[in-house]
Amino acid sequence: MGTFRHAAPRVGILACFAGMLALACVIGSSTNMVEAQELFVTNRSSNSVTVYPRTVFGSFGPIRAISGVSTGLNGPFGIAQDVVHGELFVANNFGVSVTVYPLGANGNVAPLRTITNLTFNPIALAVDLIHDELFVVGAGTVRVYSRTANGNDVPLRTILGPFTQLAQASGIVLDLIHDEMVVANASNNAITTFSRTANGNATPLRIIQAINTPLSFLNGVALDLVNDEILVTYQTSNAVAVYPRTGNGNVSPRRIIQGNNTGLNVPAGLSLDLVDDELVVANTVGGFGLGSVTVYPRGASGNTFPLRTLFGQPTALNVPQGVTLTAVPPLSAAVLPLSRSHQIGTFLTAFATIINSASFPAQ
Fold first, then answer.
1. Residue 42: pLDDT above 50?
2. Which of 82, 148, 348, 358 could form a disulfide with 78 if both were Cys (CB 3.0 to 4.6 A apart)?
3. For 174, what's the count of Cα atoms within 13 Å in the CB-facing half-sphere?
């Protein structure tokens, strides 16, 4: 796999691989895992999480929804899943909390756990099943908790301070192969990469700021370790841009999805499906005023039409913010038949690609 810049020591990488293999065994025997390929969407204005078949399009209603007073959902933005323990994590921006549900939850269900000691409005989430940690971002900070944190539990680590260059952090994704985290920042349009174990007033390992590219208000972020790329949404530019993973400085995008044909309309969260080679984007506007979800080929560029669009009142979409898929790596790919697994490269590469989405409202 070559030499990793800023990678963990060899012992640490081998330990990480061993952990991935152990988790794959757990996944293969898990009984709580949602078996279907499903699309999860957070809806900011209706305080709900709606769930659909992965290949849904048009005005198709959800197959289930988490909604109601008992759920604790309050301005849900970022969303992440844990198919090993069968859990779904939601960042509640207005409620200043993180709520956790069974992955197959439906209706007005109370959360399994709620993190309430946040001092900022959370935007995005990422779950690290190797080190059993939960990463939460918002404002100018990243907080790292135990995966099982609840109530007023204190964070294990906090990244905060002027050296971090975090500014309205709006998205986060983990790279467990290179032991890094990638954070999208809305205010300064910067993509900052840190060591996964960074703490305090840490300096980023790399910063991408495409100064010469007229794109603004960074939002969601996803990571493709198979093709070594970072994908981000730009809300006010109605665009998705793709950068080299190891880019640093004033780096131009490799490609941009943008234009009237794309259906992008104040895009927020995004999720990458390397098994089916697709990119899924939540659009907070459009779809008859309720927002939409658009799907593209992973390598799409320019003013391209989406492969599929979910929109309209029957969908129950209402200012969608975050998206996640049960069919995407890191976990479900580990138990795919060989005929499908070969599409995403080696098991370890796919397994370590943690894909999450985040969202931040346009100002």
1. yes
2. 358
3. 27
